[in-house]
Structures are given as C-alpha cells and as structure tokens.
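Supplementary Methods, section 5.1.

A reviewer requested that the exact input to the structure prediction be made available. We therefore reproduce it here, unchanged from the version used in the analyses.
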Amino acid sequence: MIHFEHPQILWLLLLVPAVVALWIWTQYSNKKRLSQFADRNMFGRLIPDASTWRPTTKFVLIMLGISLLIITIANPQEGSKMVKGERIGSDVAICLDISNSMMAEDIQPNRLERSKRIVNNLLNSLGSDRISLVVFAGSSYIQMPLTNDYSAVKLFLDQIDCSLISAQGTAIGDAIEKAMESFGYNDPDREWVKNKGRTIIVISDGENFEDDAQAAARKAVAEGIRVCTIGMGLAQGTPIPEYRGSQRVGYKRDQNGNTVTTQLDEATLTAIAQSGKGIYVRANNNSGVEDIVKLIEGLEKEHYGEAMFSEYESRYQYPLAGALLCLVAELLIFERRNKRINLDKILNNRK
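The structure derived from this sequence is encoded token-by-token as follows.
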C-alpha cells in the first residue's frame, strides 16, 4: 500500500486546477481580443507560424511535470515487509488547563483551541514516546492514560472543553501530581522505578490560585521528572467571553458587576519550570515548542519491549523520472511551427 512521508505537501496539488482555470480564461480572453481585429478565418494569414496544438501541449506537460514534482517531494513510500524492532522512548504527560480563563480570545480562536493545536503539533513531533493527557481547572483528572496510540490521544483531545470540570480555578500543582500518577507514581499495583526519561508539560495561562505548583514541580524533580510550561495568552488583561450555545452573550462579571479580566502570568509559569528543571516557552504562535521537543529527545529512553514495524521503501524515483521527462519534452517543443520540420503538414498528409 502506498502512503506519503509528507502528505501535507500534497495540498499544493490544489493549485494545479486553479492555474489551469486561469490559463483557460487567459486563452479565451486573448482569442476574444484578437477576434475584434480580424475574422477567425484570417488568423492563419496574420500569424502564419502559429500552432494550434503546441502551446496547449507545452502547458499540459508543464502542469503534469509540476504535479509529479509535488508528488516526488511528498515522497511516496511502500511498505515492503514487517520487521521486529525494539520500542524505546520517553514518558510525557501533557497537562491542559481548561478553566474558564482559557476561553479568552486574546489569541485566536481562543486560548483553549490554540492549546489543543499545540498538543497536536507536539504529537506530530514526538516519535515513539508514550503520552498521557491530564485536564485541570480547580481540580484535575487523567483524561487519557499513558499510551503510544497517538490517534486515540487526538480523539480524546478533540472532546476537551471547559465544561468537563465544574470546579473552577487553576490548580497547577494538583495537575502535576496527577501527571505523576499517570506515570505510575503512588500506584500500589505498579512498582515505581525512578528514571530521568519522564516529562510533564503544563499548558496554561498561569493564573494559579489553588495550590503550591512550585512545590509540586520540585516533588516531580525529586522523582527524576522534568516539568516544562507553555504560556497561553497575552500579558495585557482581556475579558472572558460567555456563550449560550455557539452565540456569545457577553463577558464574565464578578459579584459587583465588574467585567472579569484574565492575563498571562509568565512569572508563575517561569518559576514552575525553573523549580521543575524544565523550560518555559510562550507559544501563542506555536513557536518555542521545538525547544521542548529537543529537551524530550535528549532525555534517557526507556525500553517498552518489542514491536512490529512496517519497513517502508521510498518510491519517489518514479514520479521524479516522469516529471523530468515531461519538462524535457516541453523544452523540445517550440511555440511556433518549425519551417524545416512541419509536423502539422505531415499529419495532414497522412489523413
């Protein structure tokens, strides 16, 4: 079965029909303008060297060549055989803040949706690492236990919203402890083995009001776990929208009727990361996440046992050869008729 190493590149193929449509419209416009100056039957005398099929053939060859080059860059691969290999990786717990403040729209579409996109980017960047998913607000719970099934993690991620936890607030410390539990810490049925291949990633706006998150981060470090933080939002205060269904009905207000505002608390998130021997990044534009991925890649790896893998072989050579053939053929075809070798006459004589 054929699959592509870089399937996102194939989106460029959508440009091909757009270019074809533009070319057809240009050809139609040129003929329409030309018909204003002379009758169509006079075109052959006015432009004796013009060819009816050469420009179209050259354009088709160019479009076909570009399409094949796009497929080449996407790198089609074929799984030729199954091989047995050893699965190694790190354990990563992602703690996602789902308090009401994450509905703030200082970054579009809002903090929570942008956070979910960042988690997807993390999953696409990680290799064979195991992932657990913890959601938190005033309390926390394990949304997805430790697994290497990234498709399942993404499925659970899509279902997350701010209504999952009724207790409002931001208990980052409790979330860190729940993340440790997802690794097997304090589990009477599992033997806890301390190693330096585990990471907790907290994604939040940092407004922690419930507990001592720095103490929880230091506790994690004592068990060999790094704690990294990703800040969502802007430092300027912004109101928290309230919705009825999909329609915004206003902004959250306090008991005195004043509009409640929320802002990114970078100082708190930085302090948590420092206590957790990790790093803090501000990822409003999905930037900085690569630094956390590099940190995870540099950690000790744990052996998860053997697994069967498909060994893929690249087949880019075939579309590349086709692309080069099309482009070379396009270069060998001239726009106008060749006076010495007139293929149009040869074809007409054979009729």
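Residues 145 and 186 are 15 Å apart (CA to CA). These observations are discussed further in the main text.
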